[in-house]
């Protein structure tokens, strides 16, 4: 159960980083000193936003499920050590 929460944290961090990369690409979209075409830049911005949002949403769902599983395990065995 704890392993699932750790994985959710890491997925949330990865999703946030992809969002940050998308922001960086968006912020620097009008710089003239680049080798990336505007179409490629917009495609990667969209890809990073979609993947980052998906990872964050999946991480939140996974974290909530892990919390519910832990709560159910504790309610099934109240004498267990915490």
Tell me how many strands there are.
Answer: 0
Mean pLDDT: 88
Radius of gyration: 19 Å
Could you tell me how far the N terminus lies from the C terminus, measured between alpha carbons in angstroms?
A: 13 Å
| Proportion of residues in extended strands | under 5%
Which percent range fits the helix content? over 70%
Q: Overview of this structure, please?
A:
With 82 residues, the chain is an all-alpha fold. The protein has one domain. The chain contains two helices and no strands. It has helices spanning 2-27, 38-76. The chain starts with a helix and ends in a 6-residue tail after the last helix. The mean pLDDT is 88.
Topology:
Layout lengths: L1 H26 L10 H39 L6
Helix pairs in contact: 1-2
Short account of what is shown:
This protein is mostly helical. The protein has helices at residues 2-27, 38-76. The model has no long low-confidence stretch (mean pLDDT 88).
Task: Name some characteristics of this structure.
single chain; 82 residues; mainly alpha; 79% helix
């Amino acid at each position: 159960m704890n392993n699932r929460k750790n994985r959710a944290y890491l997925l949330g961090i990865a999703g946030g980083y992809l969002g940050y990369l998308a922001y960086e690409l968006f912020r620097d979209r009008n710089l003239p000193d680049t080798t990336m075409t505007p179409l490629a830049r917009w495609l990667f911005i969209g890809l990073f936003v979609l993947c980052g949002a998906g990872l964050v949403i999946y991480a939140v769902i996974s974290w909530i499920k892990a919390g519910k599983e832990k709560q159910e395990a504790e309610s099934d065995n109240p004498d267990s050590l915490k």
